[in-house]
Give the backbone structure.
Amino acid sequence: MSRSGGGRVGARRGDAMPARGDDEERGSAPARTPRAVGIRRYVGLPERAPWVVRCAPGLARVATTELRFRKILARGVEPTVLRQRNHDLLFISRAGDTPPDLTLRIPEELHYCPLFGRYKISQEQIGRLATLLRAQERPFRVVVTADGTQFPRVETCRWLAHRLTGLGVVITEDPAEDNVLWLFCIEEAYYVCLLRSAAPDAPERARRVVERPGSLPPTIAAAIAFLGTPRADDVIFDPVCGSGTLLAEAHGYAPGALLRGLDRDFAAVEAARQNLAAVKDARLAIGDGADSNLPAGSITLFLGNLPFGKQFGDRETNGPLYERLLGEVERLAAPTGARAAFLTADTASFDAALAAHPGLVLDRRHTVKIRGEVATVYVLHR
């Protein structure tokens, strides 16, 4: 699509574009979560091409901070933040000195972006894209996402697949095909992308072997851990550790930290032990995180995915539980200072509990959407 073009994709003179469909992703078939295979590279595509970073809704700002922390954003470059219903996108037009690598834990996907523009894909762009895809000597599946009224999703996907097929690109509708050509459309802007890496590629994620109902997605757990700024000399405590997702992500950022986790659910603790089996400094036990029996003043970082009051707990008991947990945080906080990052959707109960513990200072709140539900990360210090 040329930046100055005003027509919709695939529109011929006199054609009326079909009405836009619903807001689900459409393509040959829904895109699956990519397997962990490491960084994907493509013949003829430079390492310093523009990037699109895809993350959970609400995490664009945290993902940007992680990109700066890893020195992937060039100095002075501000990514363009794009909002979709189920994702945030970051468009980075100019790469830094360090290409994105597998150390990033917050993004769900990192994409090369060989083509982008507004309003209409040009014939010259289609030709360049076809040349790039033919050079890979493999089939591709086309998946289109669209937010706004400019691009009808289904018709755009069919048009793009048809044009590429006519230029010698092998296009498949096989849902098992991992080579996906993405087209992200947000209002009048479009971004044609090829996957570089995905969340399962992050270091040590393959060690997670047991899933539990209600477990945090690893990328959201990574964002919570990152907001807590884990350090190698930390002692990290999760009083409601579940299957250990938060502790595992904290370990990904600070491998030298000591990990401590409690949960009242025997099966959850057993799952956490399996998921953290390779972490020698992890100590997990069955118990009440609000009455941990850990030594006073022994913890420097607290992390927790607190009961929302839906799948676990209820709104009536959340208030007293949160107050007890924050009381234990005050008792366990190291005398030199401690940080905390807690996630909950029951903000009223947490706000009331926090007001009862003035020794805990709220640094900021961060809103995120988890499986369609809005929740808040509270970042505290003592």
Q: What stands out?
A: The chain has two domains: 26-200, 206-381. Helices lie at 60-69, 123-135, 153-166, 218-227, 245-253, 266-275, 315-332, 347-355.
